[in-house]
Amino acid sequence: MSLAAKNSIIIILILIMTITPFVIKPNAEFGGADGAAGDIIKKINPEYQSWFSHIWEPPSGEIESLLFALQAAIGAGFLGYYIGSKRTKAKYQTEMEKDNR
After folding, report:
1. Would you state the pLDDT for residue 11?
2. Which one-letter DSSP state was computed for residue 27?
3. Are 58 and 67 in contact (CB under 8 A)?
4. How buried is residue 5: exposed, middle or buried, by Cβ count under 10 Å (0-12/13-18/19+)?
């Protein structure tokens, strides 16, 4: 199987996994775990007082989403760099071994 075919299959699978929740539950709210945890804590103990406060809170939800996406992009960049450097190192090692034979 060619690389293009493998990539196409992966992209199709990612699209299916992304779209499926919206098809199954079209009007559902897809909120984060932080909000759900806070709601459950309030149900269990309505008088609970948080022992931690934010150092800085973003001025809007859009800024918060931007920072989250930036964090994900930086993480993906580091991960991609690491994988690429390991693959390149392995490739050069196999080429060196072939040349030494």
Report:
1. 97
2. T
3. yes
4. exposed
- 43 touches 49 (CB < 8 A): no
DSSP label at residue 52: -
Geometric angle at alpha carbon 36, from 50 and 24, rounded to 5°? 170
Q: How many residues does the chain have?
A: 101
Domain boundaries along the sequence of the chain: 1-51, 59-101
Predicted TM-score of the model (pTM): 0.52
In whole angstroms, what is the distance from residue 15 CA to residue 11 CA? 6
Please tell me the distance from the alpha carbon of residue 37 to that of residue 72, in angstroms, as a whole number: 22
Over residues 37-60, the mean pLDDT reads 87
Is the CB of residue 19 less than 8 Å from the CB of residue 30? Answer: no
Are the beta carbons of 59 and 65 closer than 8 angstroms? no
